[in-house]
Amino acid sequence: MRWLWFLRGILRTKRGATLSALFRTEAEVMVATAGRVDDTNNEVQGELQRLHGVVDGVRASWVGSAQVSFDGLMQRWNTSAQQLREALQAISDNLRSNAHHFENVEADNAQAFAQVGGDGLAL
């Protein structure tokens, strides 16, 4: 049984928090960060749409090859805005997925330690 107390001591931090609590906190931080990335993405996309509206308002002043160049630039703008939106969404999705995976691994580890503690080591 001494090894169990030793193991429990290892699983405590200097402030007395268990690793499980720290992992849970880390997962919560990841989920909160994903939410902030979503908020930032929404703000950026809103600003890009606002700017697109302003710039599109001057489109009529371009004629001929200048208008063709302007249209090409706006197509690149739209493509870049879409890529940025998708990249930020992927970051947010990955953070949430990692948090979920992190919690699952921690739960599996806690269960494994509980089983070892209940049955002892089968050497």
Automatic annotation (TrEMBL):
It comes from Corynebacterium spheniscorum. Signal peptide: none annotated. This is WXG100 family type VII secretion target. It holds the Pfam family WXG100. Coiled coil: none annotated.
